[in-house]
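Standup, Tuesday
Yesterday: got the pipeline producing structure tokens again.
Today: sanity-check two examples.
Blockers: none.

Example 1:
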Amino acid sequence: MTALRGRGGRRAGDSVFSTLSVGSGLLIFLTLALVTIFLVVQSIPAIRASRELTGDADAVSLLSYAGPLLFGTVFAALLALVMAVPVSIGIALFISHFAPRRLASVLGYVIDLLAAVPSVVFGLWGGKWLVPLLDPFFRLLNEHLGWIPLFGGEVSSPMKNLASASIVLAVMILPIITAVSREVFLQTPRLQEEAALALGATRWETIRTVVLPFGRSGVVSASMLGLGRALGETMAVLMILSPGATYSLHILEVGRHNTIAANIASHSAESAGVDMSRLIFTGLVLFVITFVINALARAVVSRRATS
């Protein structure tokens, strides 16, 4: 038994396990630091050559280059989140509290399978089938609700606009939000639900007063996971969205918006030197905005947990 113990009387296996666990945790921070250093170092040539630093009118302004891309990225992700979250919560509640057990297991399996579909398949589906299908609907919105900035502007076919890309993004993040929300709702204390029902509450009143408040922090976490997926999605957006570089709110207009990830994917093959550095700078912007959003989500979840 003495031979099996290391320093301080600890077992050798405990020491090895502790070392591996600490090392694995530190590896995450090391990887994050290396990615940050790479992005910052590779972005320096673009920053030095930018109009903001040189004052040269012929130089490319990083603000005018990255600004519209950041706007399109966040705008598309937020639209997708607005569409996906209510549907995801409804599906999660149906699976966890309304559907029969067999149907719930089948639906859960289908949702998990949907999360495994490659993004290029969603891009093909959206570009070849969904965009033509949405054409009459978008024209109807533009004709009758064109006075609303979102649906205004000139529309043209094919409808490869931000609205189409956001719908596909919503479908892509729906299984993530649904799966996490479902597991959170299933953890609701059974005694609290039974107490609410015993006091005369209906099934919906029980969900509204017990299940949803209990799972609020989990839904926020699930939504932020989906938002992170939407912010970084590349192939589906690249295959659906006709690129543009404006700050337009008209989501039905073609050639008005683009995202950072899609722009990098479409230009990285032929870029070199300062052009490549400029693309890496936009990647740094996306990295920072994703980090900030996840930090805010963590703060919201922590506040909900302590309140």
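Example 2:
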Amino acid sequence: MAKLKIGIIIGSTRPGRFADTPAKWIYDLAGKRPEFEVELVDLRDYPMPFFEDATSPAYRPEQPNRHVLAWQEKVSSLDGYIVTVAEYNRGPTAVLKNALDYAYNEWNNKPIAFVGYGGVGASRAVEQLRLHAVELQMAPIRTAVHILLPDFLAVKGGEKKLDEIEHLNQGANAMLDQFTWWVKALKAARDNTADAQQKAA
């Protein structure tokens, strides 16, 4: 069986961002799973304009903007997503919400998991993102990783590394266990649907 393609989406683009640290950490943990082929997907590489199209990508999937087209192609190529989440004013970053809005069909019937960080581990931003994911016909994973302020400050200040904090590693592996099940189940379901449609054509 071909390996399942997993994208670790870095959900912040600001200078000096912390997001690279949890992205690399969860990338390494996910990469230990033999079922997965894992890649980092950096939103800095997809400098999309703010969404102002006349219709949703759900109704008009063709897109003249080359950065948006590249983003849609990348999202389509993946079987599941793990997103690093910062929290601004009790919500996710604008650039991450914008990236979600610039695809639709490409997200459908795939799982998404979250690694949040900051004052409350980005729990309020993650909660909003779960609602967005449902609207995009994704399966948001119940278990998330929340890097709370004491651990965030210790890692950011260089006093600790994420792979040295046992409760975060335990939480991340619990999330990955759940995520792996959903990636496999939804990939099988998508393949079965595609086979049935092909036979009916």
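Quick observation on example 2: The chain has a mean pLDDT of 94. The chain has one domain: 4-200.
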